[in-house]
Amino acid sequence: RTVLILIRVIAVILFVGWRIKNNNSDVMWFWVISVVADVWFSLSWLSYQLPKYNPIKMIPDLATLRKQFDTPGRSSQLPGIDVIVTTASATDEPILYTMNCVLSILAADYHIGRCNCYLSDDSGSLVLYEALVETAKFAALWVPFCRKHQIDPRAPESYFELEGPLCGGASHKEFIQDYKHVCTQYEEFKKHLDMLPNTIRQRADIYSKTGTKDEDAKVTWMADGTQWPGTWLDPAEKHRAGHHAGIVKIVQSHPEHVVPLGVHESNDSSLNFDGVDMRLPMLVYVAREKCPGVEHNKKAGALNAELRISALLSNAPFFINFDCDHYINNSEALHAAVCFMLDPREGDNTGFVQFPQRFDNVDPTDRYGNHNRVFFDGAMYGLNGQQGPTYLGTGCMFRRLALYGIDPPCWRAEDIIVDSNRFGNSLPFLNSVLAAIKQEEGVTLPPTLDDSFLEEMTKVVSSSYDDSTDWGRGIGYIYNMATEDIVTGFRIHGQGWRSMYATMEREAFRGTAPINLTERLRQIVRWSGGSLEMFFSHISPLFAGRRLSLVQRLSYINFTIYPLTSLFILMYAFCPVMWLLPTEILVQRPYTRYIVYLIIVIVMIHVIGMFEIMWAGITWLDWWRNEQFFMIGSVTAYPTAVLHMVVNILTKKGIHFRVTTKQPVADTDDKYAEMYEVHWVPMMIPAVVVLFSNILAIGVAIGKSILYMGTWSAAQKRHGALGLLFNLWIMVLLYPFALAIIGRWAKRTGILFILLPIAFLSTSLMYIGVHTFLLHFFPSMLI
């Protein structure tokens, strides 16, 4: 593979040199741009390939971890983990997804007293808090059931969708009895979640009728009869989206030291949990304060608030975050992440461990490249052999000290300054930072929740806590970027930390992806726009990150500047328009040799891709979908991201993107119904123009062949055939986009093999008709 890369580099140099030497073109300005584009493509490809020269696949050794840190009969030495689930809206992000994520965390196979779960609700919604309370009640049944029967996955929605009940524990007869009972209780749990909005509304109506003040008519009430401090159903001052108090509520207290075996505290006594640990991890609801006119810094701000509140309550040395539509698919996943952190070779200098993203709801053909295996199982494995993978936004375990902006041990100074100027003016939080530095492996039990401590908890989630501190710059998740993930990982790598990309035979985490094309494109715009914003910022990988290795820096440059490649691809995609002109126009002469050289260079890319498929363990379909969706993105999302970046540079107003909605389309008959919905947005216009330009160009080419085949020279016939090959290649790459725009007709994927030939034939006949008409009545127009 390395030899092939070197051969291709030499081939590209010779190809570009040949083009410059033979600078003969019918359109010189286009020739100049095309040469620049070829050089750009080559450098971009090379910067993407370089990190892959030493790919490494990391697999955790869980048996050794248990032997050294969690031997039965001895006190566990496993470190604590604070697990964060982030949700921005109960409307755009289904509550059931969020609660399944929480349940999978509570049921994870990890030392119960050292795993703590925090739900970050950025909407301050009562329905999410009460859903969390309901979830804690159901967890008292679900978690012991998981432990007793050793099931996976431990998110009930995904588990009960499996074909046939699966377990690895007790006898089959007893399991079937327990399975049916828990399944019934889960259905009841889902009904309770569905009823919560109406329950809260009815409660508010009852209280408003009995209220003594006029303002009581708008109040949203909790089940205990107190006013909800977050957003209300009927928005009011200090109780609406973007303006509400900070909220911290401990839903499930920290488990006791004594292990209660087989004691079911609920009224449900039909299951036998003898010998099963019934305790649950600590569960906390958090909604940070929001005020009008104050920048809340989106997900990064929410995660930083969670970083501080978890430091006060548990201060675990490791911190892992999940998007609310993901869940723990392998109950050993937390052990796997810790395994790399405790590795005696590189563990102390490992800042974070990233796991691949895997998805449940993607159609079998992965039409829009959601699995993105070429990136997750190719590029990331390559970076394992360098300084490590980038942070991908979810399913990533951090070392708390790395998030605090503290250098790794190999670079760490003896005196570390921890003061209010950097970390904020909460004394308990400053003490927690010092405690984390002194003893990373320590286990912190929640302190006494007296009035002063409750005040401190409210302070660290206040909207003004970050003011005049290093939060969002040198500490925590980075602010003022459209996407916080890649820039936060870059800041950690830049301090000298390394990272690990971990895989497990059974995927560690799974989630949902936007299978509707419009939502998928919006997601790509947000990611690529955030990458571009980073490249043109003060933390550009061109010069920031003083401790980055050279290859790691090249990787970050490629990851942040790749959307610019789309401008050249878009230019080439419009080349078929030349077919619509009456005379032959060639970009490069001699044209036949140019196309042959170009084909050789492109084929070499795909041959190298074949070797990547082999060592990365991906399929041909994964690789092909990556090729197709990169083309689709290059004529839709990536140019849009570039436009956003230009506007940002000119106006200095920052980039704002729409959050991807995760609410599924209501269609009980088809789980992929959302894929066939067409939502037109302006960014799709260039792709439509390219698609129809190619259809017209192919039709016109057929028409010209019929009319001029007898008069064309051999060179003209070769040129026409090679140009037509380029048209067809673009059509094949845009095939998923063509399916998307025909909506529900695309359920029959072969329909395009009927519609496209009809379109080609119709266009050719129309061209022949127009040509014949002009030849008879306006012959001068054909000269």
UniProtKB/TrEMBL annotation:
Keywords: Cell wall biogenesis/degradation, Glycosyltransferase, Membrane, Transferase, Transmembrane, Transmembrane helix
Entries under SUPFAM superfamilies matching the protein: Nucleotide-diphospho-sugar transferases
GO function terms (MF aspect): cellulose synthase (UDP-forming) activity
BP term (GO), one: plant-type cell wall organization or biogenesis
Cellular component aspect of the GO annotation: endomembrane system; membrane
Entry's localization field: Endomembrane system
InterPro entries registered for this protein in UniProt: Cellulose_synth (IPR005150), Nucleotide-diphossugar_trans (IPR029044)
Binding site for UDP-alpha-D-glucose: E93, D122, K298
Active-site residue numbers: D122, D485
TM ranges: 29-48, 556-582, 594-617, 629-650, 680-703, 724-745, 751-778
Binding site for Mn(2+): K299, D323
Membrane topology per record: Multi-pass membrane protein
Chief location category: membrane
Protein name: Glycosyltransferase 2-like domain-containing protein
Species for this entry: Aegilops tauschii subsp. strangulata (Goatgrass)
Lineage: Eukaryota, Viridiplantae, Streptophyta, Embryophyta, Tracheophyta
